[in-house]
Amino acid sequence: MIPDRIIEQGTLTTHGARTAVEVRLPWYRALPGSCIAGAKLTIDGVEAPAESLRWNMNGREFSFDDLRTNTEEWWFPTDSAVLSGDLPVDPDAEHDVRVDLILYIPYIIVSDTETLHIEENDTKTMKAVAA
Amino acid sequence: MTALGKPIQGVTLYSFTRAFHGREYDLEGLIRKTAAEGFGPGLEIIGFSSFRGFPEIDDHYAGWFRDLVDEVGLVTTSLAVNADIGIHRDRLLNQDELVAYMTRQIKAAAKLGFPIARVQISIEPDSMEALAPIAEEHGVTLALEVHADQYASHPRILKLRDRYEKVGSPFLGFTMDWGATVSGFAPSLIESYRRRGASEELLGQVVDLWNTYYEQGPPADQAEHGQRFGSFIGLAARNGRPDLGIDFGINGTGLFGPARVDDWLAIVPWIKHVHGKFFGIDENGEEPSVPVRDLVKLLVENGYNGAISSEYEGWHWNNWESPFDIIRAEQAVQRSAAADAGSRMITDLAEARAQLGAWLPTTEGAGA
Q1: What does the alpha-carbon distance between residue B153 and residue B143 come to, in Å, rounded to a whole number?
Q2: pLDDT for residue A109 is more than 90
Q3: What burial class does residue B321 get, using C-beta atoms within 10 Å of its C-beta: 0-12 exposed, 13-18 middle, 19+ buried?
């Protein structure tokens, strides 16, 4: 829908082994945590380990396992979430940042048991800033 | 003979999704812009898009919103709500859970001053019947949206219509979405594929394939729908552009529904609200792929006195034209079509309020 806006330009930060980037919802309406089914953070072709990924939304931090059952916290379409993972990068250098997202669209039912999911990605180049 | 209808002009803020999502306008800014541009008086909003924390709406916020709408001179028509049956990733909501989920949104509609809640196809006849007394209690009409890949004479829609007839509640109806009766693959979408490097030959084949389905009419069932979806994916793959396949399929089947305009006659007495879905305006000031004039004529001739929310959906792919200019031009087509049909669109606030009040049922003392 609006995948070109997933990565917020100029928001790459790094602190020791952790690196983070701000992420926008590529959909027109708010979705609850339970519909944020997965993400990947890849910098200069290196993917952060899946188990190290964390999702910060509405000032709270979640693992993707936490999000699975969460229907209380919603991602509003004008808010940035923060995706972070274990991935050391050089501060003050340019990096290719790629984010992949899997979202469930809870009102579009494609079979008796299955909800539509969409896979979107975005790549942008930006300088990392030491947090 | 039915008296000619006078549809109420309006807009859904969904048309301006790109501007809102891009933080160019906040909700208040968009409402003020809508009023200042004369895109009203009807105002439609999607709850989960525009209201943070929806469907929980506190009294203070509701008061602020209603005061703002009054101040700028608009009238709230439909609150688009969602039937999030798949909100739990491992299972679908059961009937009781769905009714509870929708009830919270119906209450939000009442609190914010919307007389209609647009609901969606995933709600089955049993659930609509269960929701009817709740809608009545809160004075909110439930208008289930008929949207491509469905269409008015689709078996699922006729099942709902027959149930409405049996239940007999004036609070149950349909939202007509013009995307079910499109007459061509939108040229602005073709232009966007061109800008993504698609060859003229491929684009010609996409248009030809859609035209074939238009000649055949809408898919009889979900299996045929799936087959058509797959054929767009196959076409992209055969032409070396598999990356465009899903996009061709989603738009070719889910946005551009190939039913004929008179298909709406199957449900016309139950149409309570309209999404004037469209995709662009050409150099002659006309919508090249949605038969806006024929659709307005059909509504006028069938005595439709509800609102038409202009719903511009070309924003998905058109990032080179202003959605505000496009809405302005499309509404001019609607007004011209209503005049050609011997009637007019309502653009005056007081007239719109009075007519909408008479068009929809009310409940004494209803509220959230």
Answers
A1: 16
A2: no
A3: middle
Q: For residue A37, give the 3-state DSSP assignment.
A: strand
Compute the half-sphere exposure of residue B344: CA atoms within 13 Å on the CB side of its CA. 5
What is the amino acid identity at position A120?
Answer: E
Determine contact: A2 vs chain B, CB below 8 A: yes
Kindly identify which residue of chain B lies nearest to residue A67, measuring between CA atoms.
B89
* SS percent in chain B: helix, strand, coil, step 5: 55, 15, 35
Residue A50, pLDDT score = 97
Name A38's Cβ contacts closer than 8 Å, sequence gap at least 6: A64, A100, A101, A102
pLDDT at A92 over 60: yes
Q: How far, in Å, CA of B272 to CA of B170, rounded? A: 10
Which residues between 3 and 32 in chain B have a beta carbon less than 8 angstroms from any beta carbon of chain A? 14, 17-18, 20-23, 26
Q: Quick check: B364 pLDDT over 80?
A: no
- pLDDT value of residue A3: 78
Mean pLDDT of the region B158-167: 98
What backbone phi and psi angles, to 5 degrees, belong to A59?
A: 75, 10
Q: Enumerate the residues of chain B whose CB falls inside 8 A of the CB of residue A37.
A: 89
Token readout for B281 is: 């305006």
Count of Cβ atoms closer than 10 Å to residue B305 Cβ: 18
Residues B48-81 have pLDDT tens digits of 999 999 999 999 999 999 999 999 999 999 999 9
Work out the angle between the directed axes of helices B323-340 and B292-301 (0-180°, nearest 10): 50
- Name the E strands within chain B: 8-12, 42-46, 75-80, 116-119, 141-146, 172-177, 271-278, 307-312
pLDDT of residue B368: 57
User: For residue B89, what pLDDT band results from cuts at 50, 70 and 90?
Assistant: confident
Q: Is B46 on the interface with A (CB under 8 A)?
A: yes
A126 membership: H or E segment, kind and range = strand A115-127
Quickly state the pLDDT bin for A113 (edges 50, 70, 90). confident
Work out the minimum CA distance from B364 to partner chain A, whole angstroms: 32
Question: What's the CA gap between A6 and A124, in Å, rounded?
Answer: 10
Structural tokens at position B299: 């509504």
DSSP state of B346: B
Question: Least CA distance to A116: which residue of chain B?
Answer: B86
Alpha-carbon distance A68 to B269, whole Å? 43
What pLDDT, on the 0 to 100 scale, is given for residue B367?
61
Inter-chain touch A29–B89, beta carbons under 8 Å: no
CB A81 within 8 A of CB A20: no
